[in-house]
Amino acid sequence: MTTTLLQVEQLQAGYGRSQVLFDISLQLVPGEAITLLGRNGMGRSTTVSCLFGLLPVTRGTIHFAGTRTDNQPSHRIARLGMGLVPEGRQVFPLLTLEENLVATAQNPGNKGRWHLEEVFRFFPRLRERRRNLGTQLSGGEQQMLAIGRALMTNPSLLVLDEATEGLRPWCVQRFGQCCARSRRKAWR
Ligand SMILES: Nc1ncnc2c1ncn2[C@@H]1O[C@H](COP(=O)(O)OP(=O)(O)OP(=O)(O)O)[C@@H](O)[C@H]1O
Ligand SMILES: [Mg+2]
């Protein structure tokens, strides 16, 4: 029997009195990928915010990795194994690129699949810019950093919100292959 990794049931949320999500339900098993499609303003980033504890859930439930996680703090959800590449990158502007990468990493002793050297191997441009502050990076460099930072948490579920925005095609393709490889491994 395949264990469910993420189960969202009849999720409702919004901003103040404006309701955005109306009974969203979805289920994900390890190795599976789900894409949320729709025109601008349909509520994808809002859904992602709820998954990650960044926005209160007003009704419904979220279970991740066997734990009920709706309205739990983000750091607890991250520790359970959810990684996020947020819309708009959200890099820490006053930390260096390298500090950004290690600040939220979960890979003691470089034991995880993703550690600093591995991220630098994957995105060589990041190694060159490792001493630069977040504010000194270009849009594409910030996007690579946002992806690298999420990978460094060695997540069992990677949530991507416009994750390849501003990246050159070579990087997009490489990242796509990396995601496909991770999914194949999760199936085994
Ligand atoms: N902080 C906020 N305060 C109030 N309303 C918001 C806020 N953020 C988003 N909204 C509204 O919630 C709705 C859903 O927005 P959301 O960002 O989830 O859309 P999206 O599907 O991610 O769209 P996009 O493709 O533009 O990223 C929109 O109508 C938006 O105007
Ligand atoms: Mg969005």
CATH class of the largest domain: Alpha Beta
Please tell me what the overall shape is: globular
Nearest-integer average pLDDT: 92
CATH architecture of the largest domain: 3-Layer(aba) Sandwich
Structural class: alpha+beta
Q: Helix and strand string, N-terminal first? A: EEHEEHEHHHHEH
Number of strands: 6
Low-confidence stretches: none
Full CATH superfamily name of the largest domain: P-loop containing nucleotide triphosphate hydrolases
With strands numbered from the N-terminus, the spatial order across the biggest sheet is: 2-1-3-4
Number of domains: 2
Helix content: 25-40%
How would you describe this structure to a colleague?
The protein is 35% helix and 20% strand. It is built from 7 helices and 6 strands, in the order ββαββαβααααβα. α3 runs parallel beside α6. The longest helix has 19 residues. The mean pLDDT is 92. The protein binds adenosine-5'-triphosphate (ATP) and magnesium ion (MG). Adenosine-5'-triphosphate binds next to α1.
Please name the defining characteristics of this protein.
4-stranded antiparallel β-sheet; 188 residues; Rossmann fold; 20% strand; binds magnesium ion; alpha+beta; binds adenosine-5'-triphosphate; 2 domains; two-stranded parallel ribbon
Layout of strands and helices, then pairs:
Elements: E1 6-15, E2 18-28, H1 44-51, E3 59-64, E4 67-68, H2 74-79, E5 82-85, H3 97-103, H4 116-122, H5 124-128, H6 139-151, E6 157-160, H7 169-187
Parallel strand pairs: 5-6
Antiparallel strand pairs: 1-2, 1-3, 3-4
Helix pairs in contact: 3-6
Bound molecules: adenosine-5'-triphosphate and magnesium ion (MG).
